[in-house]
Amino acid sequence: MRWEDERRSDNVEDRRGISAGGAVGGGAIIVAIVAALLGAPPSVIRALLGGAGSDTGAPTQPADPRDNERVDFVKAVLGSTEDVWSAVLPSSGARYVAPKLVLFSDAVDSACGSASAAMGPFYCPEDRRVYLDLSFFRELAQRFGAPGDFAQAYVVGHEVGHHVQNLLGISARVDAERQGASRTAANHTSVEVELQADCLAGVWAFHANQTHHILEPGDVDTAVRAASAIGDDTLQRETQGRVVPDSFTHGTSAQRVKWLRTGLARGRVADCDTFKAGP
Q1: Mean pLDDT value across residues 32-61
Q2: Which residues does 240 contact at the CB level (< 8 Å), separation at least 6?
Q3: What three-state secondary structure class fits 98?
Q4: Fewest CB within 10 angstroms: 44, 114, 134, 160, which?
């Protein structure tokens, strides 16, 4: 992926080495992981990991200098998403207001509650921030077999996709629909939300490539491998030896690949209506 010439975003907050105000114990992490496997929505999982708070903790350890290039990379990718969505989103009826991206290590407090790095990157609509522990990039390569810059950029693009959903009012509508819904129905809605974010990541990449030619041969394949590796069916098969479709919250590997490719194909937000099209 050609990212070196991209504009760097000023919207990155570096909280690495700062302990979260609400410390997350090992038992809480285990409970949260089990809850995730049983299909609990992200908001419930973050609640299990701790209540809302602010990052008022003291520094625990200095940031790893080996991550400096990855920080620069994240700033470049975030800058690209800002440029693309500022140009593209108005045609969908909303003005783009860029989110903040918070880099953290181990655990972090957000307006959505405390979270552990074990839960992976996430977006909090309450404070309009994306949260990312850079160790996830290493896990993406080593555990999930999806190395490469564009695989990592897809992760950032997916979380920014949730921000786009928030700006379009989709997040609020979905939250209202979840109220009183059965767990199976709520999980199904969560899948539609996550698959749409995959598609929106593809929309970003389409336009970034159109304007700045960021994609190199093989880049799309690395993102597809990443999307496939983090499908609910694949993860459940690896962690619990069986697949429970009613507990899916993010979509199968095939669905995630399908919707990423849908966004990449033409770069149209209108093509990303997973709620009408179905997973």
Answers
A1: 49
A2: 37
A3: coil
A4: 44
Inter-CA distances, 200 with 110, 157, 187, 246, Å: 24, 7, 20, 24
Tell me whether residue 3 is in a domain: no
Contact 21, 109 (CB under 8 A): yes
Under DSSP, is residue 129 helix (H, G, I), strand (E, B) or coil? strand
Mean pLDDT for 89-95 is 96
Segments forming the whole domain that contains residue 38: 12-277
- E strand or H helix at 189: helix 183-212
DSSP H helices, the chain, are 26-37, 42-48, 68-88, 135-142, 149-167, 170-178, 183-212, 219-229, 232-240, 253-266, 274-277
The DSSP secondary-structure symbol of 9 reads P
SS3 at position 107: strand
Number of domains in the chain: 1
Tokens of 205: 């990449």
Give residue 53's pLDDT band: very low, low, confident or very high (50, 70, 90): very low
Map tokens 């953290």 to a residue. 104
Q: What is the pLDDT of residues 163-187, one digit of tens each?
A: 999 999 999 999 998 888 998 999 9
Burial class from Cβ neighbours inside 10 Å (0-12, 13-18, 19+) for residue 234 reads middle
How confident is residue 236, by pLDDT bands cut at 50, 70 and 90? confident
- Answer yes or no: is 1 within a domain: no
Tokens matching residue 249:
């919250």
Please report whether residue 242 resides in a domain.
yes
